[in-house]
C-alpha cells in the first residue's frame, strides 16, 4: 500500500441479478496509464463508479491514493478527476460556463476561475467554441471539454471512461495526445476502453475484464506473450482458394489456420517462426497467389480470444453514442 | 478528411498550454453556502439558455387566475369582484405549489444525465447541487407570484395590506415552496422517469390544494372533510397569505406555516440525501 494509486480486493457490485462487478482485484501503480479493457457490459463503468465514490461496493475494498472509497470518500473526491462515459458536462451551458461553474465549485475566485477556464479551453483547442452551448459541439469537441472539465483542479489521478468511443481517428489521436501529455506531467490515468489497440498504444499495464472479473493482467507484451509467438496473416488473390490454403498452411505450420472475417484472408498462430517462410513457399508451389502477408505479434484481439474463448468484437455494440 | 465541418482543425496538441494547465494551483474548498449559490447560478444559466422552462410559471398562474375567477366567481361569491378578493391570495398559493412540482420533474431529467455524476464526484457539500437547483427555482416561483399579483391587480384585486403585506406574504410563500420542494426532490429520486414523477406529483397535488380553503370556505363542507382541511398545511398557508394581503397579521398561523415548512425539510431533506447518495 502507499505505492499504489489504486488497490482493490474482491470488489463486487450487483444490480438485481446482474453481477456487474464480480470480485475485481486491481493494483495500479502511481504514474502512467492503466488500461481496463473489456467488451460492452464487462463492468468497466461500474468499477470506475465505485472507485470514484459514486457507487457503494456490495463487497470488497478499494483504496484510491491510499484512501478508502467508502470511509474516506471525500478525501478521494478531492484528489481524483472523473470523465464519465456519457456527457459529463452540462449540455445546456456553454463551454466556458461549464468550466467556470466547476472552477467556482472547486474554490477559484470568479476572476481566477475565468482565467482557468480560458487556459483550459486554449489547451484543448476549444477557444473558438467557448461561448457555444456544449450540445452544439461535435463528438470530438465534446470529449475534449469532458476531459478539460476533469482538469479544473489538477487531479493526482484521473478516470477516463471510454474516452474515445465514437470518435473519428483524428479526434481519437488528439485524445491520446492529451492522455500522454497528462502522464508526462505526472498524473496517473486509469482508462477503460473496448479498443484493443488503444490499450496497446497507451497503457503501461492492462487488466482485461469480462463478466465483472479480471481475466488477465499485465503489460501489453506480457499479455501477448501468454498467448504465443504471434500469427501469420495471409491474404489471397482468389478467395475461393482459401480452403486449400488453409490445408497447406496447417500442413506446414502444424497448427490449424483460421479464416478471417475478410473472405480472402486467413491467419494461423505460429509456434516456430522458421516454418513461416516454408509455408509461404509451399503456398506459391501449390499455385495459390498471395497478395499480402504479415507476421505479427499477437494482437490483443487474439489475446482476448484466447482468454475468453470469444472475440471481443462479437459482443454487439449496445450504445451507438 | 472532411474539410467542411465547422470544427477548427486544431493543430497538434499545444503542449505548453497543457503543461501550464496541469500545473494549476489547488484553491481552498468553498463552503456549503457558496457551492449552493453556485449551483443556483447554474439553474439561472439554464433558464437563460432554455427559456422554454418558464412556460409553466407563466401559463399556470394566468390560467388559474382567469379560470377560477370567472368560472366560480359568480356561483361561489355572488360576483367575480368579491370572489377575487377572497380567491387571489389562494390562487397565488395554488399556482406556486403547482410550480414547485416542476422542480421534481426537472431534477429527474437532470439527474439521469452524466453531469450529475460529475457533481457527485466533486468534493463539495453533498446536498449543494440539489439546494442550488431549489434556490434557482425560487426565481421561477417569484416570477410566477409576480404574474399572479399583477394579473390580479389588473382584474381589480385590491390588497388592503398594501405592498408590505403582499411582499411579506410572497416571502413566506417562497419559504414554504422551497421546503415543499424537498418532497418532489425525493420523489424524483425514487421514480424512474419524469413522467412518473409528474403523475405521482399530481396525485399528491390535487388533494393538497383542493381539499383546503383556497377555493371555498370550509364551513360549507361536511364535518370530516373540514377536519382534513384543518390539518392541511396549504390551508394555513392560504390563511396567512390572505391575512397578510388584507392587512392582518395572523401570528399563530404564521407559526404554523413556519413549523410545517421546517418539518417538510426535516423529513424529506434527509430522505432525499440518503437516496441521492445511494443513487446508482
Ligand atoms: N444502474 C444499473 N442498473 C442495472 N444494471 C446496471 C446498471 N449499471 C450497469 N448495469 C449492468 O451491469 C453490467 C455492467 O455494466 P457496465 O456499465 O459496468 O459495463 P461496461 O463495461 O461499462 O460496458 P460498456 O462498454 O457498454 O460501457 C451490465 O450488464 C449492465 O447492464
Ligand atoms: Mg461503460
From TrEMBL, chain A:
GO-annotated cellular components: plasma membrane
Bilayer disposition of the protein: Peripheral membrane protein
InterPro entries linked to this entry: AAA+_ATPase (IPR003593), ABC_transporter-like_ATP-bd (IPR003439), ABC_transporter-like_CS (IPR017871), ABC_transporter_ATP-binding (IPR050763), DrrA (IPR005894), DrrA1/2-like_C (IPR025302), P-loop_NTPase (IPR027417)
Predominant localisation class: membrane
GO biological process: daunorubicin transport; doxorubicin transport; response to antibiotic
Location relative to the cell: Cell membrane
Domain of life, source organism: Bacteria
Domain named ABC transporter: residues: 6-236
This protein's UniProt keywords: Antibiotic resistance, ATP-binding, Cell membrane, Membrane, Nucleotide-binding, Translocase, Transport
SMART domains to which the protein is assigned, alphabetical: AAA
GO terms of molecular function: ATP binding; ATP hydrolysis activity
Secretion signal, residue range per the UniProt entry: none
Family of the protein in this entry: Belongs to the ABC transporter superfamily. Drug exporter-1 (DrugE1) (TC 3.A.1.105) family.
Protein name, UniProt field: ATP-binding cassette domain-containing protein
Higher taxonomy: Bacteria, Bacillati, Actinomycetota, Actinomycetes, Glycomycetales
TrEMBL record, chain B:
Signal peptide interval: none
Residues annotated as domain ABC transmembrane type-2: 52-279
InterPro entries: ABC2_TM, ABC2_TM_bact-type, ABC_2_transport, Nod_factor_ABC_transporter
Pfam family, one: ABC2_membrane
The keyword Cell membrane is annotated on this UniProt entry: yes
GO cellular component terms attached to this protein's record: ATP-binding cassette (ABC) transporter complex
An example Gene Ontology molecular-function term: ABC-type transporter activity
Predominant location: membrane
Record's protein name: Transport permease protein
The organism of origin for this protein: Glycomyces terrestris
Amino acid at each position: 500500500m502507499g505505492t499504489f494509486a489504486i488497490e482493490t480486493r474482491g470488489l463486487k457490485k450487483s444490480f438485481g441479478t446482474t453481477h456487474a462487478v464480480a470480485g475485481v482485484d486491481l493494483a495500479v501503480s502511481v504514474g502512467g496509464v492503466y488500461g481496463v479493457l473489456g467488451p460492452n457490459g464487462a463492468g468497466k463503468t461500474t468499477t470506475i463508479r465505485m472507485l470514484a465514490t459514486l457507487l457503494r461496493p456490495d463487497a470488497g475494498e478499494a483504496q484510491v491514493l491510499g484512501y478508502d472509497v467508502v470511509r474516506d470518500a471525500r478525501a478521494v473526491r478531492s484528489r481524483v478527476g472523473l470523465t464519465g462515459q456519457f456527457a459529463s458536462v452540462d449540455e445546456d451551458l456553454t463551454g466556458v460556463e461549464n468550466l467556470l461553474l466547476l472552477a467556482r465549485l472547486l474554490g477559484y475566485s470568479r476572476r481566477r476561475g475565468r482565467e482557468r477556464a480560458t487556459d483550459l479551453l486554449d489547451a484543448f483547442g476549444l477557444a473558438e467554441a467557448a461561448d457555444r452551448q456544449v450540445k452544439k459541439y461535435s463528438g470530438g469537441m465534446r470529449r475534449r471539454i469532458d476531459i478539460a472539465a476533469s482538469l479544473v483542479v489538477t487531479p493526482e489521478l484521473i478516470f477516463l471512461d471510454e474516452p474515445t468511443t465514437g470518435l473519428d481517428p483524428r479526434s481519437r489521436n488528439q485524445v491520446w495526445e492529451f492522455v500522454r501529455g497528462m502522464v508526462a506531467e505526472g498524473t496517473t490515468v486509469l482508462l477503460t476502453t473496448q479498443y484493443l489497440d488503444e490499450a496497446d498504444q497507451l497503457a503501461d499495464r492492462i487488466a482485461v475484464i469480462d463478466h465483472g472479473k479480471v481475466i488477465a493482467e499485465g503489460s501489453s507484451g506480457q499479455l501477448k506473450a501468454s498467448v504465443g509467438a504471434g500469427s501469420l496473416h495471409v491474404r489471397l488473390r482468389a478467395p475461393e482458394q482459401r480452403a486449400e490454403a488453409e490445408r497447406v498452411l496447417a500442413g506446414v505450420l502444424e497448427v490449424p489456420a483460421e479464416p478471417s472475417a475478410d473472405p480472402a484472408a486467413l491467419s494461423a498462430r505460429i509456434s516456430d517462426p522458421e516454418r513461416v517462410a516454408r509455408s509461404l513457399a509451399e503456398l506459391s508451389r501449390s499455385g495459390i497467389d498471395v497478395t499480402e502477408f504479415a507476421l505479427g505479434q499477437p494482437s490483443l484481439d487474439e489475446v482476448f480470444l484466447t482468454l475468453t474463448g470469444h472475440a471481443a468484437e462479437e459482443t454487439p455494440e449496445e450504445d451507438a453514442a | 478528411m472532411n474539410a467542411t465541418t465547422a470544427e477548427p482543425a486544431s493543430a497538434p496538441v499545444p503542449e505548453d498550454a497543457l503543461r501550464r494547465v496541469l500545473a494549476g494551483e489547488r484553491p481552498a474548498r468553498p463552503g456549503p453556502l457558496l457551492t449552493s449559490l453556485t449551483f443556483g447560478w447554474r439553474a439561472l444559466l439554464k433558464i437563460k439558455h432554455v427559456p422554454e422552462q418558464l412556460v409553466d410559471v407563466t401559463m399556470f398562474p394566468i390560467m388559474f387566475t382567469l379560470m377560477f375567477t370567472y368560472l366560480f366567481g359568480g356561483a361561489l361569491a355572488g360576483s367575480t369582484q368579491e370572489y377575487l378578493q377572497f380567491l387571489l391570495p389562494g390562487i397565488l398559493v395554488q399556482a406556486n405549489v403547482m410550480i414547485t412540482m416542476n422542480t421534481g420533474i426537472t431534477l429527474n431529467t437532470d439527474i439521469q444525465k452524466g453531469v450529475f455524476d460529475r457533481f457527485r464526484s466533486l468534493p463539495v457539500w453533498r446536498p449543494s447541487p440539489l439546494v442550488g437547483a431549489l434556490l434557482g427555482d425560487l426565481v421561477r416561483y417569484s416570477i410566477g407570484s409576480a404574474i399572479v399579483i399583477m394579473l390580479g391587480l389588473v382584474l381589480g384585486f385590491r390588497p388592503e395590506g398594501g405592498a408590505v403585506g403582499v411582499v411579506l406574504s410572497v416571502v413566506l410563500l417562497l419559504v414554504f415552496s422551497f421546503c415543499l420542494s424537498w418532497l418532489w426532490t425525493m420523489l424524483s429520486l425514487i421514480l424512474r422517469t419524469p413522467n412518473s414523477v409528474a403523475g405521482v406529483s399530481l396525485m399528491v397535488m390535487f388533494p393538497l390544494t383542493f381539499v383546503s380553503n383556497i377555493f371555498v370556505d370550509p364551513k360549507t363542507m361536511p364535518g370530516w372533510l373540514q377536519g382534513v382541511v384543518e390539518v392541511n398545511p396549504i390551508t394555513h398557508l392560504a390563511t396567512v397569505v390572505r391575512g397578510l394581503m388584507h392587512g392582518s397579521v395572523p401570528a399563530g398561523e404564521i407559526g404554523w406555516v413556519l413549523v410545517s415548512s421546517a418539518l417538510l425539510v426535516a423529513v424529506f431533506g434527509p430522505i432525499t440525501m440518503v437516496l441521492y447518495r445511494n443513487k446508482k
